[in-house]
Amino acid sequence: MKFLLLTSVLIAISLRIFYNYLTSVPERPKIDPQRWWGSGSKPAKEDESIRPFKIDFNDTMIQDLKQRLINRRRFTKPLEGIQSEYGMNTDYLNKVLTYWVEKYDFKKRAELLNKFPHYKTRIQGLDLHYIRVTPKVNKNIKVLPLLMLHGWPSSSKEFVKVIPTLTTPQDGYDFVFEVIAADLPGFGFSEGTNKPGLNPVQIGVMMRNLMLRLGFKQFYVQAGDWGSQCSTHMVTLFPENVLGYHINMAGSIRRISIVKLLLGSLFPTWIDSDHPERVYPLTKYFTYVLRESGYFHLQFTKPDTIGVALTDSPAGLAGYLMEKMAIVSNRDQMDTPHGGLESLDLDDVLDTITIIWVNECIVTSTRLYSEGFRWAEDYALQDTPTEVPTAAVKFLHEVVYHPDWILRDKFVNLVRSKSYDIGGHFAALHTPKEFAEDLFAAGAAFLNFHSQKK
């Protein structure tokens, strides 16, 4: 009897020690909020000007791009009976490239982007590009400043379909958003660095400094993909600056979360009565991740190598990026030539690829995969919870799905969570109506949270 009692006590103590380890919070890393990322050394006086910017797809670039596409080498045809199971279907790719040369209207697409006010300003040595739309409303409507951050392969262009809705009063809400949609450094029209170490933590610092430069000491954030990594670190480091965080690729990789995710596979419907099939059985999910993560490993280990090919060939760039955009828009359509890409508007897809081609930023953007996993400060902050009120939206084909009981390990005040049976990774382009509606609902939840707190 004594032996059983002693054994039980030892087991209980061991479990408690293990639990304390899983839930312990690492020491917060020391971050230099003004670290210099520009060329050379930091000057005595920095340029803090804000400059209007206009997107230009000029004739020289267009002609060069078209000639490269026209003079491309012949592609190897798909195997018999194979659609997109082996990757980009080259018959379909040929059709898209022909459209890019003959029907995609470069000038019109630039005009559509230039309908929004664009700006550049230098933050910590790098020129950052952003769209800023200030709504015109009466004094009874509150204006909430909203920083929006994209992922890879993307830019602030990803938000152009939702900006008009977000900046216009909607029925049932007494507020609108003032949108600041920024290009991450090395993405879109933002300058990349020539120094190692510009990881999601450091980008989060830069984006917070951008908002301070624009006069916002407190603001809201919306983000997905790498933008959500940068933003999650931002809200963890600077909770006093962020009033609410809306995330469309929500996940927690705290130690306790990983254990809970594994334990959940034993009783998935108990753990998540919402959509357990989106993550369980884990063997199905891990098979999907293994099949689709080859690019991730390549860009993590050798981003500059793949960058040589993608920088030189617009056909190669299109094939590489379209295949990845397709699978995360609809993973169930690999048995089609487009592989899921037709979930998105083709002109939106080509806008994204054209912006990357024009700015020659495929290398500076893919380097984030390497920087994001090399630095201890990233891991320390990933395992640190945040109390900033958070809203999670989960679209059907998003890359990551975590149940709310796991999300709360990282986002202590999860004030809203909603799952959709439609949509995918590029939510603002794919399902702009639902995306905007969810963001307004999140805004109301944030305001209510702070009202109750007062």
Automatic annotation (TrEMBL):
Q: Does the keyword Hydrolase apply?
A: yes
What species does this protein belong to? Answer: Trichoplusia ni (Cabbage looper)
Q: What is this protein called?
A: Epoxide hydrolase
Q: Which Pfam families match?
A: EHN
Membrane topology term: Single-pass membrane protein
Enzyme Commission identifier(s): 3.3.2.9
Note the InterPro entries from the entry: AB_hydrolase_fold, Epox_hydrolase-like, Epoxide_hydro_N, Epoxide_hydrolase
Main function: Catalyzes juvenile hormone hydrolysis.
Q: Which family does it belong to?
A: Belongs to the peptidase S33 family.
Q: Which gene underlies this protein?
A: LOC113498265
**What catalytic activity is recorded?**
1-(4-methoxyphenyl)-N-methyl-N-[(3-methyloxetan-3-yl)methyl]methanamine + H2O = 2-{[(4-methoxybenzyl)(methyl)amino]methyl}-2-methylpropane-1,3-diol; cis-stilbene oxide + H2O = (1R,2R)-hydrobenzoin
Subcellular location per the Swiss-Prot or TrEMBL entry: Endoplasmic reticulum membrane; Microsome membrane
Domain named Epoxide hydrolase N-terminal is located at 50-159
Locate the active site.
225, 369, 425
What does UniProt list as this organism's lineage? Eukaryota, Metazoa, Ecdysozoa, Arthropoda, Hexapoda
